[in-house]
Specification:
With 89 residues, the protein is of the alpha+beta class. 48% of the residues lie in helices and 21% in strands. The protein has one domain.
């Protein structure tokens, strides 16, 4: 799975937002706001990493994050992006 290339991630002040571009802007009317962890997961998905790989990357990047916490974070972001139609399966 991967983030569709019709969405871009941008930093606006202290927030990360994903916005549709090109044809996606005509059908998706909104933005996706992400916290730091959500942005980390977004970038990993954009790079084509699978959920288990992202979990491992989260645990190595953030000390104190266990596999259960990482799994829940990845699942929450993936499920949200999937429901919004932002992921290519």
């Amino acid at each position: 799975m991967k983030i569709k290339d019709t969405f871009i991630l941008s930093q606006v002040d202290d927030s990360l937002i994903a916005v549709p571009v090109d044809a996606a802007a005509e059908s998706y009317h909104g933005i996706v706001r992400l916290n730091e962890t959500g942005g980390f997961i977004w970038k990993a998905l954009a790079d084509g990493l699978e959920p288990k790989q992202i979990e491992a990357k989260l645990m190595s990047e953030y000390s104190g994050v266990d596999v259960e916490t990482a799994g829940k974070a990845v699942a929450a972001v993936v499920n949200q992006l999937r429901s919004e139609g932002i992921l290519e399966e």
